[in-house]
Structure prediction request, 166 residues.
Amino acid sequence: MEKLVTISAKIPEKVYKEMLIRIPEGERSSFIRDAIIEKLQHTPRPDKILELEERISQLEEKFEKIAKYLGELEILTLEPGKINPYAFCIDEIDRKIMEYLLHYKGATTPELAQHAGTNRWLVLNRLRKIHKTSKKQLGKPIVEYYAGEKAGKKRAWWINQELTEA
Prediction:
């Protein structure tokens, strides 16, 4: 038998009295020890949970890669009008950014910041997040940055017309 260690525990008085009635005096210690061991057997180990979480994240990454490759090969059908661009928005600021891009097809970060009523750095970070998330889920980004001149705008973000709703 393993070395035993003494512990102390506070239990409700009602439970203690019940234990005094039900469990004989010489067996209480082993009863409590068995109860703790039984409870531990039903509680999953943290390392097992961590291992399962890692496996799930690996599966998610593999699935995202497959979706990306299928999107690049255009096997995964991304039909125009089937993607809701607001699905990648997490709050009102993102919705304002997406609303502006859908209406004007493209915009610079200062224009978007003025429309959303915030600073351009927040807008830039949100656009990058929308870009990354949509590319991860669809294989193609729903918003793209183009540094050159397009439709009279330089260094602007553009909505991907083939993915958005008609």
